[in-house]
Amino acid sequence: xxxxxxxxxxxxxxxxxxxxxxxxxxxxxxxxxxxxxxxxxxxxxxxxxxxxxxxxxxxxxxxxxxxxxxxxxxxxxxxxxxxxxxxxxxxxxxxxxxxxxxxxxxxxxxxxxxxxxxxxxxxxxxxxxxxxxxxxxxxxxxxxxxxxxxxxxxxxxxxxxxxxxxxxxxxxxxxxxxxxxxxxxxxxxxxxxxxxxxxxxxxx
Amino acid sequence: xxxxxxxxxxxxxxxxxxxxxxxxxxxxxxxxxxxxxxxxxxxxxxxxxxxxxxxxxxxxxxxxxxxxxxxxxxxxxxxxxxxxxxxxxxxxxx
Lengths: 204, 94
Known about the structure:
The complex is a heterodimer. By secondary structure, chain A is mainly alpha-helical. Chain A has one domain: Four Helix Bundle (Hemerythrin (Met), subunit A) (Up-down Bundle), CATH 1.20.120.80. Chain A has helices at about 15-45, 45-55, 60-85, 85-115, 125-130, 130-170, 175-200. Chain B is an all-alpha fold. Chain B has 2 domains: about 10-60; about 65-95. In chain B, helix 1 (about 10-30) packs antiparallel against helix 2 (about 40-60). The interface of A and B includes residues 25, 69, 73 and 77 of A.
C-alpha cells in the first residue's frame, strides 16, 4: 500500500462540491420541516394567519428580498471574477455581498424591534392573549426568520473568510472550491428567503 | 480527472438573471395586492418556484453541472413534495 502513496496534491473539486450539495439538501429539509408546519397550521387556522400576517410590513420584506437577490448576483459574480483571475474584483464583489447581507440584518433588527415595541415576542404576555392561530403564526415567524437570519450571519462569516483567503492567495483562479461552496451556501440563504417572503409577508 | 471545459458564467448573463428575478418579485408583490383569494397563495407559490428554479440553474450553476447532481437536486425537491402531500393526507384524513 505504501508504494502507491504519492506526494502530488490531489484536489477533487467535483467531490468537494457534491459534499456541499449534500449538506445543502439537509438544510433544505431543516427549513422544509418548518415550511410544512407552517402549511398545516395555515390550512387549519387560515383566518388567524390572515390577521397575524397583516401585521408584518410587506415593504421591509420586499426591501430585504431585493438585498438578498442582488447579493446573490454579486456572490455569483465573485466566482466568475476569481475564475478569470481578477482578485481585486473578487474581493470588491465579496465585500458588496457582505454589505448587502449586513443591510438585510439591519432591516431585520428594526423589524423585530418594531414587533417588540408592540409587545410581540416569543412568550410575551400580549402574545398569550392572542388566539391560538396568531400565536402559532408569530411563533413560526420568529423561528423561521430567526433561523434564516442565523444563516445570513454564518454566510457573512464564510464570505469574510473568503475575502482573507483571496487576499492571501489561498483561494485563486486555480483553486476556488471554498469560494464556490460559500457562494452555494449564500444562494441557499437567498433561495429560502424566496419562499419565506411570500409566505410570511405577502399572503395575508 | 476534469477533461471538460469549465463553464464560467458571464457578468452580463448574471445581470440579466437578476433583472428577471427582480421583475418576478415585482409581479409577486403586485399580484398579492389584488386579493384573488385562494388563488393568491397559488400565484405567489408558483412565482416563488420559478424564482427558485432560476437561482438553482443560473446562480447555483446547476444548468452546467453533471446529470447526476441535477437529478439529485430534482430528487430532493420531489421527496419534499411527497413528504408534504403525505403529511397533509395524514393530518386531514385520519
